[in-house]
Amino acid sequence: MAVPKRKMSKARRDKRRANWKLTVPGFVACPQCHELKMPHRVCPECGHYNGKVVIKAKAE
């Protein structure tokens, strides 16, 4: 049975666990107002999602 010979420090353990994240998700242009937004989310500028108004747009 494998048993560690020495205690692994928290810093060394956390450095190893920190490298699993992938790249940052890209932004896409909203088809209604053409502002950049996160994919699969309501546009914060115009309030559209999937071609429908979901929330009221910000007052200007």
UniProtKB/TrEMBL annotation:
Transmembrane segments: none
Protein name per its UniProtKB record: Large ribosomal subunit protein bL32
One Pfam family from the record: Ribosomal_L32p
Presence of the UniProt keyword Ribosomal protein in the record: yes
UniProt GO molecular function: structural constituent of ribosome
Organism the protein comes from: Pelosinus fermentans B4
Family: Belongs to the bacterial ribosomal protein bL32 family.
GO biological process: translation
Classification via InterPro entries: Ribosomal_bL32, Ribosomal_bL32_bact, Ribosomal_zn-bd
SUPFAM superfamilies listed in its UniProt record: Zn-binding ribosomal proteins
Domain of life assignment: Bacteria
Keyword DNA-binding: no
Keywords: Ribonucleoprotein, Ribosomal protein
Gene Ontology CC terms: large ribosomal subunit
